[in-house]
Amino acid sequence: MKNKLPPFIEIYRALIATPSISATEEALDQSNAD
């Protein structure tokens, strides 16, 4: 797999673009609050 992975921000933006953003964002937020 020599494919370049997209920047983390790109993945994050893709995540927040999903309908289940509240759950994902909450988990990430709590993890960041550590």
Question: Would you mind describing this structure in some detail?
Answer:
The chain contains 2 helices and no strands. By secondary structure, it is mostly helical. It has helices spanning 8-16, 21-33. The mean pLDDT is 67. It is 65% helix and 0% strand.
Task: List the SSEs and their pairings.
Blueprint: H1 8-16, H2 21-33
- Main β-sheet description: none
Mean pLDDT: 67
What characteristic shape results from the CA principal axes?
Answer: elongated
DSSP E strands, number: 0
The arrangement of helices and strands along the chain is: HH
Estimate the helix proportion, in percent: 55-70%
Structural category is mainly alpha
- Our estimate of the beta-strand percent is under 5%
Rg, Å, rounded = 12 Å
Number of discrete helical segments: 2
Q: State the distance separating the first and last CA atoms.
A: 33 Å
Low-confidence stretches: none
Task: Throw out a few tags for this protein.
single chain, 2 helices, 34 residues
Brief overview:
The chain has 34 residues and is mainly alpha-helical.
